[in-house]
Specification:
With about 190 residues, this protein is an alpha+beta fold. About 30% of the residues lie in helices and about 40% in strands. It is rod-shaped.
Amino acid sequence: ELTTMRTVMVSFVRQIDSLNQTNIKLVAENQEMKSQVSAVRQQYANLQNENKTLSEQVEIASRLEAIAISAEGLNYNEKVVRNASKISKVKVNFTIAKNISAQSGMKKVYLRLSRPDGQLLMHSKDDLFTFENTKINFSAFRDVEYGGDEVATYIVYKVDAGELMEGTYDIELFCGGDIIGKGSWSVKK
């Protein structure tokens, strides 16, 4: 019986040794796999950051830009006048610059015209658009067909009686939730 027990014990020792060797190999493989998974996760995070950065750059590159911004006061006969009391309309002229990255189609361009005292010229408090996740008022707007090339256009604001004053007015143009241009305009008394 003792010999049989020794034989069985030697067999168990060999099996234990074999299992230990297999366990050591599996632990090493497990560590290698964990390292590979960690490296892949890091690569994925780096690619996500790079993708986010590139998306932001494309978004910035696709923003429209208004250039050559000017304004003029018009009387009821559509003649240019500079006196506040004679102006019935303010015509803001501008050009949307060429941008091959921008998406083509109809663009809604909003005008904010502010008096020298800072008050926004507007007809209704319900005239709102979204800028930086906030609803703000606008003076006037216009839909512009944009195909990627330079487009010269204008927006007209109809003046209420007694609304204008002497001084320099601020002009801001917005499209797609972004400010696309700023300018100023002077009015005489």
